[in-house]
Amino acid sequence: MGSIGQIKRGNLVDSVKSALAISGLEPQYLELELTESVLMIDTHAVINVINELKTLGVSFAIDDFGAGYSSLGYLKQFAINKLKIGQSFIQKLSCGKSEDNAVVQAIVQSGKTLELQTLAEGVETLEQAEQLIQLGCGNGQGFFWHQPMRAKDFESFCLNQMTI
Description:
There is one protein chain. By secondary structure, this protein is an alpha/beta fold. It has one domain: TIM Barrel (Alpha-Beta Barrel), CATH 3.20.20.450. The chain is built from nine helices and four strands. It has a four-stranded parallel β-sheet. Helix 5 (72-78) links the parallel strand 2 (59-65) and strand 3 (82-85). The longest helix is centred in the middle third of the chain and has 16 residues, at 98-113.
């Protein structure tokens, strides 16, 4: 998501509206990520921006949930759609310690209880993907599925996937 400066200046909503108009993207296909630090700086301003963008159909995720100053109380105030489980937690799944699994499972369960989606960031191995499924997290992103790519390569990739 934009910086706290954009939120304070009041031009983030206009920037998003402009980007949607130029791209032709329907708002329901746009998900903006918020960091915990942005949420904590000017809570009232952030809530107003989120609410305004949500009325357009834009959705929101908290990036690296649990890695900073997470507060379950804030999740209700900010009308978040998704919790993104930080890569640091996912990497620890491979260590086999039950407490590492418990942290991920707690985030996933919190998401389910609050009716939020969860997504694991930084999934690099089949073992991690399988563990996440066992823990109830069926969404992930990371090198396990594909390396990052430029926009034009992504377009070709998607078109090739649809023809298979």
